[in-house]
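User: Predict the complex.
Assistant: Input components as received:
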Amino acid sequence: MIRIEHLSKRFGKRLAVDDLSLEIPEGSLYALLGHNGAGKSTTIGMMLGQVLPDAGRVLIDGHDVQEKRAEALSATGAIFETPSFYDYLSGRRNLEIFCSYSRPVSGAEMDEAIHLVGLDKRIGDPVRVYSHGMRQRLALAQALLPRPKVLILDEPSEGLDPEGIHEMRELIRRLHDDFQLTVLICSHLLAEIEQICPQVAILRGGKLLFHGEWKSAEPECANLEAFYLKTVRKGRE
Amino acid sequence: MSLFWRQLRLELVKLFARKRTYIGFGAFFLVELLILSLLQLRPAQRAFARLLETNGFLFEQYFSGLTLAFLMMTNTIFFLSSLYLSLIAGDMVAKEAEDGTLRMILCRPVSRWRVLLVKYLACIVYTAALMVFIVATSLLGGIAYKGMGGLFVYAPLQGVFGLFDAGPGLVRFLVAGGLLCLVMTTISTLGFMFSCFNMKPAAATILTLSILFIDMVVQIIPYFESIRGWLLTFHMSSWVLVFQPRIPWWKIAESLVYLAAFNLSFLIIAGWHFTRRDFKS
């Protein structure tokens, strides 16, 4: 579903992503892991056409993001680490604005997405009065409104309380199971990822250290954290 | 096409739902009132009367609503228009890039050129709305205060000395207002171009104002007379030529073509940069 081919990006002297190739199968729950500055957000930026690669390409559903942007991104929804909104407008108005850049969305479709993320009662309020959790849910609603096949989530649980993290996890699972979405999550919360994603890619210094099913790769590792640390240490050597 | 209009409509909703969008309208109105009050002071009226009477015209006939409207309009535009237009234009892209909302839009299946065009058109609509507001409030304010009367226009830099009866004066005033909407788009386009670069909104506003200021200073320095034809503010003041007894339409048209060329160049530079830059958190 997502195919990354020899992707590289340099910011000044720093090589943020170094010849990265990766394939994320259709319908999978996949995580992109790495320390700060490992190149995760840059990779996601290139997947979404916000960051222009120096070399390589990203294909979503067979379409090159750079060359066939409209086709590639028409089936992609995304949320970012700190989702930004027009705070002085209502949640619904924000959804209308973002959706206007995808395709016409009916009121019923919008209501369905709002209901799915549980914002029915507060959608008419200005976003400035939303809690962090509500903003994350609104971000998820806007990501779902193009009716995506691919969902790219950058730190979806960042800043949420334990209850919010649990809700987000359940929501992601539900979206994956009910709508057969391909979900790519970028996160620091390894315990969280362990519960959601069987497949991971680990980046370090822009290079890919591992990709695939972590449990079958190192069965002796008790959890994802142990596997991650072992992989990163190996990469450092 | 309907999606394009929807995007433009929502862009305008965004723009006009912000409180700061209206600061310009409020400030213009207050300055108009201030100018109207200052024109009631004796020294101001004496100077005005001297100018008219030394040329053989009656002060009472031309110190009228239309003349006051013209004075309110020109002074308000001179003092404030560059500031507020560059403020809003400088915000259009840079503020959204800074806030992160632009990233949310740019991950949608829409070309960057389309996003840019929608934002630019919204910026132009704002410019026109602000100019219409100034023209309307100064006209209504002047007429409400002094009645219609004749129109007297004196603009030495453009070589304009015009006297008109009420009817023709009103027509000239409205034509000038229409031209003002067109020429002022250059300030907005310049601000918009800087807004598309990788800089803070305030920096885009300051850069726009700096360029306009330098351009205006160069225009009034006699040594640079030969390059006046290349200056933005020289062509932007072409709307005043409407008040010459015989309107030099070809001169006005030439200036509008120059400004259109400037606008197009600014927009192409903006697009070139906007479509090639990275948007990161």
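Chain B has twelve helices and two strands.
Let me know if you want any component modeled separately.
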